[in-house]
UniProtKB/TrEMBL annotation:
Self-association state and partner proteins as the record states: Homodimer.
Single GO molecular function: ureidoglycolate lyase activity
Catalytic reaction(s) noted: (S)-ureidoglycolate = urea + glyoxylate
Protein name: Ureidoglycolate lyase
Keywords recorded for this protein, A-Z: Lyase, Purine metabolism
Main enzyme class: lyase
EC number of the protein: 4.3.2.3
Superkingdom in the source lineage: Bacteria
One Pfam family named in its UniProt record: Ureidogly_lyase
Amino acid sequence: MRIIKAKQLSKDEFEKYGSYTDVTSPNGYGLGGFYPDRVGFPVSGEMALGISALKSERIEPMRVTKAEYHNKTSEGICCLNDDVVIHVAPASDVPVPELTEAFYVPKGTFIRLNPGVWHLAALPVHEAEAQVMILLPERTYVNDCIVVEYKEEDWIEIQL
């Protein structure tokens, strides 16, 4: 099993996987208290976006045993009640667990993953359960979700 350390979220380190913004403490140009278009989320035609709720339980140790990706869409992730750790690996049509990186994401930070980026649930850091908002085009989880379980020798432990 490989051990990786969760990195602090930064534009330079994360931009190959997607983008992010702090929705609880926005800065820069605003229209009063409204801060528009901080993260783009491209959709096409009549595509409807769905907001889903995820309850992610804390696990000790933080261990990655599987991952998923979406071919046709980005995925939005925002934890509402806790800091979380997310794991990501570059877009590929085959699993690349050896390229997995982990990022420490403060609560209230909206993450947008690029299409094809390997990932799975955000892992809570402090709380027993993270309350996570997921943004995906409707029904992506049934028509564009490839999940792969790793061989035990490819499992990854994430340390803070």
